[in-house]
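FAQ: What does the model actually see?

It sees only this:
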Amino acid sequence: MHTFITEIRETLVPDRAARFGPLPPLLVGMTVVTGLVDSFSYLLLGHVFVANMTGNVVFLAFAVAGAHGFSIPASVVALVSFALGSVLGGRIARHFGHHRGHHVAVATATQALLLTVAMVLALVGAQPFGTGVRYALIVVLGGAMGVQNSSVRRLAIPDLTTTVLTLTLTGIGADSALGGGMGSKSGRRLISIAAMFLGALAGAASILHVHAAVPLIIALAIVVVVAGVSHLAGRSNPAWTHVDD
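And it is asked to produce this:
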């Protein structure tokens, strides 16, 4: 229990001298962003994800088979937009990846610009969204999440992928006492799951009871905070900003 609580504390409130500095709680925030954005896309853009590409591949198969409520063009556009965003994220990592603080600041600032466009589209678009606005939102959000995932992949912080929870859940079971392990990192892994759940819950509740654009407004606010914190925290080049060899 002590180790479990310590893992939660070190993830949410890491020591200044911690290996990854402030990045773990920042990535927890980005996991909330994923839940917010995917709740928006699935509920309002027609059974499509803009962050979870595994789901889109499955949805594409459903659409090809003729299942009702799924769209071949929407799934393809989401996949292509995400891939293009990943290319952009890779370019950012190539130029700024030697300094984690600069890397995260530039990547999240880029993501914030794309989320701003999406937020404006959601605010001015009539409900339900017309085809043009719908596909524009898929393109912009898919690109934003591609940038995020490419950047997080470069950071390579264990159990904080911000999007994929399948391996996180697998790790909890496989490393548990029942699975023959020691339960290592279960605290951090559960935080990731909770962050995704809370983001999706807040997104769905906002869409159903407040306004369609609210999930994107919250997501944008989180991303802006992450960009600001990573920039400010990394200005003096502390140890966590240096990429491991």
